[in-house]
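Two folds, back to back.
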Amino acid sequence: MVIVDHNKNIQRIVDRILNDSNLYDKGKTEGKLRDVFFGDPENNDKMAVSQMPYLYVTTRTGLQTSRRDVGISLAENSRQVVVEYELTIVAKSNAKSVESQKQIYDIIKNLTALSETYPTFTNPADNLDPIFTRSVISAVPYDESTRGQLITSISVVLLATIGSTYTINFPGIGDVVFLSRPSNPDGITFDENWEGQDRVVTPSRFFGNFFGEYESTFALDTAFRAKYGVEENVTFKRGSDQRVFKIVYVEINPTASYDTFDRTILHLEIVQ
């Protein structure tokens, strides 16, 4: 079951930004954010706040979308939803409009670095309690009504996935989160025997394979290569459900990069 807590999520984004010295220092440094707010400005008036540059965090018109194209009948089948949060930056210059644009570009640069360093938006106090399973800045639309003016506004759209992931825990490596549910065909092979005129079919052995796609890194790919041919137990987890498999490492297959990140398909053979 997926429960989206917008109040907690927006506040966490605010707290993460307030904790980042590259973005915020109460206006001590020119160009850094002077304030960060939860929700839209009063009466949706961006000029109502005097301490510019500032940033406010809110939801977009559509509060959330689903990856499912049909409904569900069981709550546990609801695994992930996608939410778009809008982080709007309002900057000001008393001299030239280009100066406010420069403020915004610096803030966007550091905001991007923050989201890539903490894509799950853990609590800045202890780096625990992630609120997202993954996130990415998906769009940065300009407010055309303010473009070229002394007070300039631009939005950063944070695309966040919320809900449980498909994960396998590997000895010596730890949890690896997969981009989607791994292909996991398994079953039993049978032997066919004859006793006189009678055909007898008996179970022979269990078989199975895993094919799972993950965000690859050089270190993770290297760790899997070092395990080729190794047999050991791994734990496949989805939410609170889990199952232990004895597997052997067969291969990794790096695939084409998609949307600026690399992916690898891991092949495991299940042995009993």
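---
second:
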Amino acid sequence: MKKILLIITISLFLSGNAFAMKFSANVGDIVENEVSFGKERFPLPAGTFKVALIKKWLDFRSVMLIQTDKNTGVIRWKIKLTATGSTNEKNSSWVPSKICNQVDSYFIKRIKGKPRFACWLITHATTDPEDVIRQSISNNYFSFNQTMHHKIDAEQSLLSKSKDYEMENNLISPLMFVVSKHNYGNKSKLYESEYYYNPELDGVPEPIDLEWSRNEFHKRQVRKFPKHEAFLKKYISVSASLVDRFNKLNKVKGTLELDASTYITQASMNTGSGQTISEVNAGGIVEKIKELKELLDAGVLTKEEFEKAKKQILN
């Protein structure tokens, strides 16, 4: 009898570990700076965010975070984060060449490896859930096995519920978002970050054409619209600071860092709460100094070494 109970206990423990770790907040909570799934940490842009939705499916867990302008109810940021524990399949449920082969993105960096890979891109997206899924499929995003069919259904469900949430809370969404997507696969685990930003809050005109391939932000169209292209170039830097912070928070090393830090500039841009890129990047500086302080407290660094390293970071 004791042996049976032990087996059951171990099985429950393993199945709990196999599933994506619990998200660090609950629906309705206000979060800022970073959030996490267990040990895996995800950086946030400047300002506070409300946890709008949390969805569990198979070995995955997804959340939707929203930041709005308090005076107008206009959405600044929508952030979708997804994480998974080890899947139940013998092989990973995704194919790096599929995930990282999106076409017609304005900017893309990728490292395809096995069992680890990473890709990071800048693109645009309408606010229609069906359009988002349709575009993902047309860009060969998914590997069409049973798990990925579930993934498509779950993605569409989350996006649809997000639209319902916006309507119920009288939130105003732009007609077109600019999006930063970062995927990091480590063996059978997958982490996805999608940062949707409202470019209209930075003075970019409303879209003339809502068709994705004809929109002003599309790679083949954007050169005709200097204001849109200038915005995208600045957004690469904002996105780079988020990818760089993810890498540091989760100790991603080598080529899988995708050289994100080299794309961080000091370009001035409103990123959600009146802050410039310089101020957003300060979040990464705070993280570095915090890590140094932990090493100091642990006795790994001397006081002199700590001050010298901190000075280098601040400079």
